[in-house]
Design goal:
By secondary structure, the protein is of the alpha/beta class. The protein contains six helices and 14 strands.
Length: 269
């Protein structure tokens, strides 16, 4: 059927993300630094985003498109962690019911695939040798903010890392992030049940090749292994996964076996 739907001129888009936060249905996301319509069914065609674009890159066109699906859009927004203001309106900050967490619909949380940074050589007075470049290939990295579907999940090797691991291991980027899509969270301080459900959706909706879990040696970190395992089972997918423990002094430890009741996957040392 023909209907009205937004059209984004990527050549005029400056990647500011104002349209992302203006779209209550989550139909627009930043991909490779440009605003893109992620699915026709999420766009109601009303054009609330048009007035927010400083470059005039968004217009309304009439073309063959799938019908707007409000229920699908609401599920999509929930998966993005953006929430939806009661009675419509712009996505903003909304608490996650029953858990007191804050959700962010700001442009900075829009999905982006990142190009690797070049190696920069330290100048005079700043030490010797080259700086280690970032290996981060995706944004956002927080499990709560990560979209369920994003280009960087296709055929991905995913690293699910406890928050503290990157601060403990000096070579974390080269050793663990390089070549992987990163997701981070804390099984002790965050909503573990929400994380397990969110990860299950990501595993179910994408062709994930493998999952690596990086945790600290402290006992509470084992919860991250448990919830990742639960998410894989809930997804119905056969996804190999491994576990690496990192000491509080940054050394990579022998995993010493998966927590009780988990037999899937393998270990990495």
């Amino acid at each position: 059927m023909k209907r009205k739907i937004v059209l984004i001129d990527e050549s005029r888009c400056n990647g500011c993300g104002d349209c992302v936060s203006a779209c209550a249905e989550g139909a627009i996301q930043l991909v490779d630094g440009k605003a893109r319509l992620v699915s026709d069914v999420y766009c109601d065609g009303l054009g609330a985003c048009i007035g927010e674009c400083p470059e005039g890159a968004i217009t309304i066109e009439e073309r063959e498109a799938a019908s707007f699906d409000e229920s699908a859009a609401e599920r999509h927004v929930a998966s993005l962690g953006a929430g939806r203001v009661a009675g419509g309106g712009h996505a903003g900050h909304a608490g996650h019911a029953g858990h007191g967490h804050s959700e962010c619909g700001c442009p900075g949380s829009a999905a982006q695939s990142l190009d690797p940074l070049p190696v920069r050589h330290a100048g005079h007075g700043h030490g010797h040798g080259a700086e280690t470049p970032s290996r981060l290939a995706n944004w956002p990295v927080q499990i709560r903010l990560a979209p369920v579907r994003a280009p960087y999940f296709a055929g991905a090797s995913i690293l699910v890392a406890a928050d503290c691991t990157a601060f403990s291991h000096g070579g974390f980027h080269d050793r663990f992030i390089a070549g992987r899509t990163l997701l981070v969270g804390c099984p002790k301080l965050d909503d573990a049940a929400f994380y397990e459900g969110k990860l299950a959706e990501i595993f179910r909706e994408n062709d994930v090749r493998s999952v690596e879990v990086a945790i600290m040696e402290v006992p509470c970190c084992n919860g991250l292994v448990q919830l990742v395992h639960g998410a894989i089972v809930a997804s119905g997918r056969q996804i190999p996964f491994g576990v690496t423990r990192i000491g509080i002094r940054g050394d990579v430890l022998d995993p010493g076996g998966l927590p009780a009741g988990i037999s899937r996957g393998r270990h990495r040392t």
